[in-house]
Amino acid sequence: MPETTRTPRKTPRAPAATAAIAGLPSNGRVRAVIDQVLPAVDAGRFAVKRVVGDAVAIRAHCFTDGHDVLRVVLRWRREDDDNTHEVPMKPLGNDVWSASFVPPEVGRYRYTVIAWVDPFESWRHEMVRRVDPDDIRIAARVGAQEISACARRAGGADRKALDAWAGALQAMAADARAEVRALKALALDDVQAQRARAYPDRSLATEHPIELPLVADRERARFSSWYELFPRSSSPTPGRHGTFKDVVARLPAIAAMGFDVLYFPPIHPIGREQRKGRNNALVAQADDVGSPWAIGAAEGGHKSILPALGKPADFLNLVKKARALGIDVAMDIAFQCAPDHPYVKQHPQWFRWRPDGTVQYAENPPKKYQDIYPFNFETDDWQALWIELKSVFEHWIGEGVTIFRVDNPHTKSFAFWEWVIGEIKRDHPETIFLAEAFTRPKVMHRLAKLGFSQSYTYFTWRNHKHELQEYFTELASGPGKDYFRPNAWPNTPDILHEQLQTGESAVYMTRLVLAATLAASYGIYGPAYELREYRPRDPGGEEYLDSEKYQLRHWNHDDPGSLAPFITRINRIRRENPALQQDGSLRFLPVDNDQLLAYAKTSEDGSNVIVTVVNLDPHQAHSGWLQLDPASIQVDPQQAFQMHDLLSNQRFSWRGAHHYVRLDPHSVPAHVFAVRRRLRDERDFDYYL
Amino acid sequence: MPETTRTPRKTPRAPAATAAIAGLPSNGRVRAVIDQVLPAVDAGRFAVKRVVGDAVAIRAHCFTDGHDVLRVVLRWRREDDDNTHEVPMKPLGNDVWSASFVPPEVGRYRYTVIAWVDPFESWRHEMVRRVDPDDIRIAARVGAQEISACARRAGGADRKALDAWAGALQAMAADARAEVRALKALALDDVQAQRARAYPDRSLATEHPIELPLVADRERARFSSWYELFPRSSSPTPGRHGTFKDVVARLPAIAAMGFDVLYFPPIHPIGREQRKGRNNALVAQADDVGSPWAIGAAEGGHKSILPALGKPADFLNLVKKARALGIDVAMDIAFQCAPDHPYVKQHPQWFRWRPDGTVQYAENPPKKYQDIYPFNFETDDWQALWIELKSVFEHWIGEGVTIFRVDNPHTKSFAFWEWVIGEIKRDHPETIFLAEAFTRPKVMHRLAKLGFSQSYTYFTWRNHKHELQEYFTELASGPGKDYFRPNAWPNTPDILHEQLQTGESAVYMTRLVLAATLAASYGIYGPAYELREYRPRDPGGEEYLDSEKYQLRHWNHDDPGSLAPFITRINRIRRENPALQQDGSLRFLPVDNDQLLAYAKTSEDGSNVIVTVVNLDPHQAHSGWLQLDPASIQVDPQQAFQMHDLLSNQRFSWRGAHHYVRLDPHSVPAHVFAVRRRLRDERDFDYYL
Asked: The domain A224-577 is classified under which CATH number: 3.20.20.10, 3.20.20.80, 3.40.50.1370, 2.120.10.90?
């Protein structure tokens, strides 16, 4: 069989799980068993996530009764295309079969596995081991029958050749003078066998009853570096409301830092009713700009732009300029309304009305959010609501947006998300959705399963060594590995973690290195991070003082203490080292010091290995012995290998499994080592030229 | 809602997994999510196994968007009965809900979970936390609406009471002079709330799309002690062919040892063609009795009895006498034929014929089994073959057999086993099937999934501490825990393990204690074990010399070296300690000596804890420190507790977490401790009276 063939699909989509119990099955002669096909998310209820161009490795657990030989193929197709492709699967031992395919385009795929007991291969497998001359003669005649059967399934020249082979085998088996050794050699002819294999008898094939779904995203779904800013604070003139044009002026600096996703909080008209003032004051002053998440006013709602930021053409121009620099603009989708959002008058049935004639605003008693009306997803008019919300995505996709950061998806209907993401990705498969759900684990996992491409994580609150090890081991190797893509943020406009409230450079560097090397996707709430904004609004709280959420801010990008150069280096290391562009290979390395965290990541092909060591204590130098087995990184245990610190550009020669490390937070609190296996590695000399 | 209600079933059996993607779902207002229902085997493809009378604990992962309150119920039914039972599920935290049900009879069951966002409970949950008087007044009016809705779903007195409550709440909320505290108290009235809860609005309920299957077996499927013997060797007179009557005479001794399953190798007529001689000789002598697994001769096949053993009435009598002693007779089912089995002439199409006109005998080249013809499960006449093989089970069930030990099921069609076990257990749910498959792990697991009640294990070849720990941890806690019930055998007629070939008493005791305390089901190939038959046929092999498989043997049950008293004690300990009657609770305990293996098992209710310590070295005494955290066995860490060795009847006082143990193989190589938490435990004094 050729490596990949195209055959028409005939898989029934649903299993008839218990048909056998009610009576005889339709064909009891089928003997091949397919016990598992992996990966699978909830037995195919949800799609596995992969990236276009990456090989998707499929494994199947297949066997049959007795000693007969199986053949197994992987069959895959685009979900919207009935033409299927087959790839032979190879046995890895222990009844595990393996094959892979590379999704050629973004979109949804389906895959399943087919196995059959192969009479020709079974016969050949036994013939190899036969020694008794009488057995060999009888077996040769059995083989001639199998080969004739292959010939009947073949056409043209192959049919003739196989018939001739069968005839020769039959004749020699019947000839008592023929040498048994020659007979066995003829029976086991490799060229003929290869020809016969192209015409297998698949009439008794077993097909895995589920065609498993898979989403192939573009690469940025797996590997992305996010930068969040408030456009209204991007003006170079203090006190002036920033505009999209101001953001365009910042683009080269953002691109130079190495970010590839630029994310804005909502850019829509901001409600005036119940508007919040600075520092979340219940009553706004006349010049207060309000929270961008209180969406909608007389000027428009979720499809409109706040006039102070610019016109639609300005936004379009920004998206275009960003793209030219390799940056995607990500839109914030917050499905909620200010009291003066046009929806409230146009579609009152989409909100929950109280007996006093007011709308039920968002609350979690005794907390109240008077400036925000949630949608009522139990409304009788839910179809219209869903279709309208879907049109919000479509509107911005029309404006060039391909990435959406969804605000609090866990407070909206899960069924809605599954539907809307499915619909949008069917028509625009390049779209990426990031779920901003800081909530309970099972809820976050469900959102990822039902379609979100990336998910915010608990990283911000994982600070100690054991916490980080446990959490990222779960992310890299737990059940979510096939559907939950972490996006790690050291800060957000809502979260100034206590650790950052000292403003110490070492903490900001440490948390950045951790986010950027533990997770293939990470992000920072930008100006506030690189300029180390550290003042909390309330002692013990995580809100920023004078937060941009409620007022304009001005940022001094020329501050000599800016972390921009450090961030630039980190992002360059990420871009140049495939090991850091995926999550699955992460493994932690033992270090005998609780303040030192070490871990290795390896690229898919094994050629690129990055070992990161971080000092978690921002105040003191720490040293310790790190354990790294050379064999685990394909290094000869007898040879020295070079560890090239891509942060400091220092080089260390290591040998064996135990290595001394020391990190002083007063210089750089981390090593990001590239393993140089040969001293004259091609990347070794030109790296920092 | 009452604890258990009966409602008509309306579950659709199959999920419409991806309907939402093709367009709007049928009811987008449904907001409750059921992410997982556990236990489940391959997402419901196969049944979970439990035992009648044991509570089946079901967990579900359920949540909804936002802060609304869910109600969740477990729904279960007999598979053949549309009447369902509902049990409210309780939240355990972390979105896990729990409930259980007790299958009242043996048979197959189905269970699923239903969840809904409950407007009444959501309202009440918020009302509890409200403090603002205006909010409370408005919320009371909202509550009156919810209560009225409950009233509309109620009838009779409840309807009246709920209407009255709603009216009172409405009136008090409208009365500006009414005290807010009184209004809140009226709204939160517990008695009224309990009444309202009985009439929930389930119109937007989510139902888990799969009704998961469960098999409730009788207790012996979980907990059984097997004794294997060859009836033909049971004659008290050396040289005379044993009979069923001879076995009847042995029954009291077997019952006294504490066994509850008596298993015979095949009892059918033995083929004469190609009969094997003593020690597997290719040519039998005239007086050789042949292998019982070469089934079938002129006298009959799988439904017949070897005349030398007795008549059908003798077998019936034996089954009856055994049952009176609490013993089930287990029948060996080996679906293969001697060349002179009547099937070969009557149904030649059930065998694979070779071009020379002979039948393809069993072989695994270059090995040959000329005395055995396998069935061809790919025969065109497979329906007739399956129905005939099923009738073999039915025949012996008619003779009172309820347990079948199936020989090499992995060399017969898996689809056949799934069908035949399903059919037999539907009509005879008390039937137990033991799979004798010593083969690759995935194959053994598949056989267990598709219906075998118990499975032979690798125990025989797991001898070192780490091997035993790893293997039994996997059996107790791995994915097989819901469907793979281990049955551990220290020996079988096919396996005289190298360890046993010294004949040392300590080895025989050690392996017996391990099998009987690690696994809830275990067995021995009896006379050869208790009389320590240790001579191998070939050096380095595992076959017995002068094996009963090919000749008559005579056993001296009066041998003073017999292990019968030791076995009797072990089986009594098993019978009296529920901790040893299940597999799930096993956990190994650290001991700082590689020759000492220690583990604890705890009964379902926690009241019975057995700690076993075994010296794996048959030659030397070993001592070490065993770690047992008192809290893990519900013992106050400050108090001493008594460890009562049920083998030696010695008592030890332990305190804290570290305990010294010492075992000398020259006396008894094991402790089987019962933990006595109180010094005056009720079982303490009467145990060995």
From this structure: 3.20.20.80
